[in-house]
């Protein structure tokens, strides 16, 4: 098994920078801003033949009020499940009371704790570490996480007692794993929904817009209620996306970019909507972005329990009216706080995933195409009519139907929409967009000039004389 390494320390000491360095990614948002990281962020890395898992945590030790309390709880959970703890301190700021408080708690742990004195670039290492010997931790390492200095030597010491990679550690991700991104505006209940699905406080929930900043991936296995085969999922909690004109802070801009990248990395997107507001213009923008990305989509209308019946009727009418451009989108009404309808949400997610990855042979698709064009042939364009000859499946997520024929570029948009709707109906695709790709065969005689014989030339002249008379 891979060792789990938890990165802990007070805010703004460089935990996220070291996390990105150890995982060789840019998954954690980094800025010169204390308290940026809030939820636990997991990532995998490898040093030589030794793999490991790193857990980035929020800053602890400076406050127990407001959102700092759940941030501390998240960090303590990471420490509890870790095999090794890396305690980061700021070598430039020196020893603080918060560092002493954290060290007092870590010394009681029955697991190895390593002290990393960060931000020592440009400083004498021994001078930077002098104050921190008072913490009573024997394994001290001067590092510069931003530049990678000293990180290799520290990780050699951390991993020396752990075995090298096993075959089970190198297994690729199951292709049947369903990646689900939870998207929506700020404070609509995305993190609450994920915690309800997982049955634990995995991500921080706080009554304040913008609580989630990173995109947090949480793998889990779900056993269906009917006793069927268990299925693996990866839930991606994303930051709330506001209208562009309301996004001013640089940190929030990075959070929005991470959320939109999560849509690209997902296979199914669950858009969470606040039932009190109905579907807003911003929700429609997010729906449009998801459809453009080709991802399967399920709309979850949250906070449904406490509404009056008249307001519920109004919400349903508004949802139907505003989603008229995408009638295939499935809408489910839930209450993430109380759990109402959350279990049934996965039935919609699974149907959307199955539709996005549908498999069908070329013969079956070609027969469908013949039936569609037989009942409603393509319209004429001038003297000619487009001929659609055969079809095959060109890709998944979204399912792409490639149609070959002649003069396909002359098909009007209305007929292309008709083809999409008919294929969606015949293939029983639910909750996923479908795309058509039209291809015309090349004319083998294009650009070639026919050379007439002497007899053909004389005949042409006789015919021209006849026409002139």
TrEMBL record:
PROSITE patterns: G_ENGA. GO terms for biological process: ribosome biogenesis. GTP 1 binds at residues 9-16, 56-60, 118-121. InterPro entries: G_ENGA, GTP-bd, GTPase_Der, KH_dom-like, KH_dom-like_a/b, P-loop_NTPase, Small_GTP-bd. Residues 3-166, 178-357 form the EngA-type G domain. The keyword Heme does not apply. Coiled coil: none annotated. GTPase that plays an essential role in the late steps of ribosome biogenesis. Belongs to the TRAFAC class TrmE-Era-EngA-EngB-Septin-like GTPase superfamily. EngA (Der) GTPase family. This is GTPase Der. The lineage of its organism: Bacteria, Pseudomonadati, Pseudomonadota, Gammaproteobacteria, Oceanospirillales.
């Amino acid at each position: 098994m891979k060792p789990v390494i938890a990165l802990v320390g007070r805010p703004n000491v460089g935990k996220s920078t070291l996390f990105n360095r150890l995982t060789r990614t840019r998954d954690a948002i980094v800025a010169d801003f204390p308290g940026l990281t809030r939820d636990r962020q997991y990532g995998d890395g490898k040093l030589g033949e030794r793999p490991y898992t790193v857990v980035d945590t929020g800053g602890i030790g400076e406050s127990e009020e407001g959102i700092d309390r759940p941030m501390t709880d998240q960090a303590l959970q990471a420490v509890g499940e870790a095999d090794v703890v890396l305690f980061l301190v700021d070598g430039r700021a020196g020893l603080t009371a918060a560092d002493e408080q954290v060290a007092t708690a870590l010394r009681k742990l029955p697991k190895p704790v390593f002290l990393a004195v960060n931000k020592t670039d440009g400083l004498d290492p021994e001078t930077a570490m002098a104050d921190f010997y008072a913490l009573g931790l024997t394994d001290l390492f001067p590092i510069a996480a931003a530049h990678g200095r000293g990180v290799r030597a520290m990780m050699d010491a951390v991993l020396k007692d752990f075995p090298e990679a096993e075959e089970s550690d190198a297994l690729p991700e199951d292709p049947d794993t369903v990646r689900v991104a939870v998207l929506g505006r700020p404070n609509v209940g995305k993190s609450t929904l994920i915690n309800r699905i997982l049955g634990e406080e995995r991500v921080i929930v706080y009554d304040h817009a913008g609580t989630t900043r990173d995109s947090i991936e949480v793998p889990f296995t779900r056993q269906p209620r009917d006793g069927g085969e268990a299925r693996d999922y990866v839930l991606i909690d994303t930051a709330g996306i506001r209208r562009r004109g309301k996004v001013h802070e640089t940190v929030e801009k990075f959070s929005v970019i991470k959320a939109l990248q999560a849509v690209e990395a997902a296979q199914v997107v669950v858009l969470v909507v606040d039932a009190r507001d109905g579907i807003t213009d911003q929700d429609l923008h997010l729906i449009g972005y998801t459809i453009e990305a080709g991802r399967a989509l399920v709309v979850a209308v949250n906070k449904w329990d406490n509404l009056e019946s008249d307001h519920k009727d109004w919400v349903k009418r508004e949802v139907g009216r505003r989603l008229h451009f995408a009638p295939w989108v499935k809408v489910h009404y839930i209450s993430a706080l109380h759990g109402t309808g959350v279990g049934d949400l996965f039935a919609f997610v699974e149907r959307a995933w199955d539709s996005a990855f549908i498999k069908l042979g070329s013969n079956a698709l070609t027969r469908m195409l013949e039936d569609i064009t037989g009942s409603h042939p393509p319209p004429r364009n001038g003297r000619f009519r487009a001929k659609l000859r055969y079809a095959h499946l060109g890709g998944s997520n979204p399912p792409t139907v490639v149609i070959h024929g002649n003069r396909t570029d002359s098909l009007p948009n209305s007929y292309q929409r008709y083809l999409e709707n008919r294929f969606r109906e015949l293939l029983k695709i639910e909750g996923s967009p479908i795309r058509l790709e039209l291809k015309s065969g090349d004319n083998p005689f294009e650009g070639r000039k026919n050379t007439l014989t002497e007899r053909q030339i004389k005949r042409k002249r006789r015919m021209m004389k006849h026409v002139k008379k």
